[in-house]
Automatic annotation (TrEMBL):
Catalysed reaction equations from the record: Random endo-hydrolysis of N-acetyl-beta-D-glucosaminide (1->4)-beta-linkages in chitin and chitodextrins
Span of domain Glycoside hydrolase family 19 catalytic: 37-129
Family, per entry: Belongs to the glycosyl hydrolase 19 family. Chitinase class I subfamily.
Protein name: chitinase
Any GO molecular function: endochitinase activity
UniProt KW Signal keyword: no
Origin: domain of life: Eukaryota
EC number in record: 3.2.1.14
Function: Defense against chitin-containing fungal pathogens.
Species this protein is from: Solanum commersonii (Commerson's wild potato)
Amino acid sequence: MYQLIGGWPSAPDGPYAWGYCFLRELGSPGAYCTPSATDPIFSFKSAIWFWMTPQSPKPSCHNVITGRWQPSDADRAANRLPGFGVITNIINGGLECGRGSDSRVQNRIGFYRRYCKILGVSPGYNLDCGNQRSFGNGLLVDSM
């Protein structure tokens, strides 16, 4: 596991111009750093598969970002509405969503807004997942 940080507050072009960077490794890395784990084609294919494939009860990230996903009654009750916040919930909801304000989520939003600005597109609404229940559980986590 890595501790991730964004840029620093006074970084040239702002804190989100530098992307995520690995600050330091936490714990024992195990064998994933061996040369046998560095197949770029496999890495790319697995990333595309994850982006495109729904994993019930989660929709695909692709369907969310393209507006093809419509929340069910259960999704609405869990505050999961169309927008970038649901993508964060799909990717890492069990660790980052339903906890109120979370610096990891705020960094994701900052990077997302920056790239939307570069591409000249609107980031849309519902960017945060702080008030969403994770797809993996039925309860909001107390933020205290």
